[in-house]
Amino acid sequence: MAPKAALGADLVIPLLAAGFAAYFFWSIADLSWEAKANGVLIGTLLVGLVILQLARIGRSLARGSGDLRMDPLWLPREALAKRVGMVLLTAAFIVALEWLGLTLALLVAMALALRLLGVRSPGTIAWVSCAVAGVVYLLFVAILDSAFPHGPIEQLLARLFA
Amino acid sequence: MSWDFLAGQFAAQFGLWWLIVPGILLGIVVGILPGFSPQNTLIMLLPLTLALPVEQAFAFMVSLYCANHLAGGVPAILVRIPGSGGAAATTLDGYPMTRKGQAQQALVLSFVASVAGGLITTLATLALLPWLSQIGLYLRSVEMVVVMLFGLTLIAVIAARDTLKALIAGFLGLLIGVIGTDHIYNAPRATFGFLELYDGVPLVAALIGLFAVSEALVMIEEKMIVSREGRERAMRASWAETFDGLRIAARKWWHIVWTSFVGLFIGIVPGAGASIAAFVAYQQSRLWSRHPELYGTGVPEGVIAPEAANNGVTSGTLVPMMALGVPGGTTAAVMMIVLQYHGMVMGPRLFQTDPGLAYGVFVAMAVAYVFMIFTILPFARYMARIVLIETTYLAPIIILVTIVAAFSERQYLFDMALALVFGVIGYIAHKTNYHVTAMLIGIILGPLFEQYLVRALRISEGDVLVLFSSTLGNVLWGLLVLSLVLPYVRRLRKPQTVA
Q1: N or C: which end of chain B has fewer CB within 10 A?
Q2: CB-CB under 8 Å, A14 with B420
Q3: Are B400 and B35 in contact (CB under 8 A)?
Q4: ipTM above 0.90, yes or no
């Protein structure tokens, strides 16, 4: 017998789309027709497509050819912790950027990310993190003078080369 | 325009090699990095270009611009991260070629298609400029709505494995593209209370999230991005692979020619741009192919078509600027600022008052393409080695560095967080086969589509039938329907295999 399709995961994007369309309609309720026309047209079509997809999933469930498992999102299990860890680490990096500055925040985040993904050698972690942070500093801060928050490393280097 | 005049122009532009080569190198670097657009780079370099004589400034800007279009395909092929929206279609077959160990060949195909496509369309533009410049005049809001919808139908046709899922992704992208204030009353829509979204969703953050971050999150599952055979092939790769790529490109010369003209004609339409051109060319290439079912598995035509088209756009974009005084895109607008600073008035009279500059721009472009192939081709072999780096190193570098690059478009930390959110959405879409490319096309087209639709509706005082009121528009509607129906007809006519 063929394995059942994990249709729970297939529901995530349509439900997200339907939720967003509902929020969109709510946000334009009081606006003039010019501001609404395009959103109403696209949103209505989107909701129609979502209903079609839900009907298709419902038919598969009724036939017993699928169930509501979410496996495609979690599998393979051994990569799940690494994946969730990378998302959390990146979020922490963005938050820490304001206090640590671009270079130091990136250096720390890179080192932690390499460790998280399984690099064991401290020497390798150190040189890869320093190289990435160094290149990013040169490109974004020294050459392009982007408006990234400055931290201790940027301030120190600015004093040295002032 | 005499042959002597043209020969003089070519000689003068070759003499500017000292500006063209740095322009090309800078354009390649900027093109490879997602988040860096040629217009932002040109804006940063305004102090330099404003100080140079106008002919030299233009040779530099045009070289940078063309090289940028070419280089966007490099990360698209190697790690499935388009350097710009115009290279998004290149990921569809470029990355599968990389996974099969044919990265070097794919890069060479991309370079040759880009250079040949750019060169052919530039020379064609030089010859046909007075006539080409009229095209933009025939395309009004109604026709533009259909052109945009033509782009949208590609969502369904490109992702033919599951059309319904692709349409949901595409229309979700379109609705995301409408986030922000409307064009007329500046009323905010679906901004979740964030002031940073009043200007709309930043394309760079969406591009980085949907492609770079999501791909890196998937990449973590495997030790390397290439298969074992692919790895062995990549390690053995020699100059022979480069010559193989050149041979394949030479055999597909006609494919390069016609897809580059698709790019040229779409480039002339103000606002249409490289991303639409590349997808239209890819879709048309698949539509007329003898083996459309192989598209998406790593076929050379799937790399050639979008790359030739997105470089065909380069000369097309400059046509309305030079001939009508209407910039065809943001980069053209920046170039126009430089020209205006030097007292040049764009428009039809430029060809009488200063033919040297008017035609010289396109000659500079042709010369830049000639220099480009010799500059970048030798590097294909070494660039292809990037796929041999283990994902334990590649994934965190891609995620963290591209998230940093998301900041560069508007200089908001918010955009970095937004890229991460798009990364998670892109990961879910990727894992459940809701085409992320379709979502990106939707986000790119959303604001343009609204602009033209509302303009057409306002002119007709809200009458929807205005969309079917022009002959050209109706012809385009017919072509659009044909594009949707033809693949199904072909599938039905194909003899069914017995399981």
Answers
A1: C
A2: no
A3: no
A4: yes
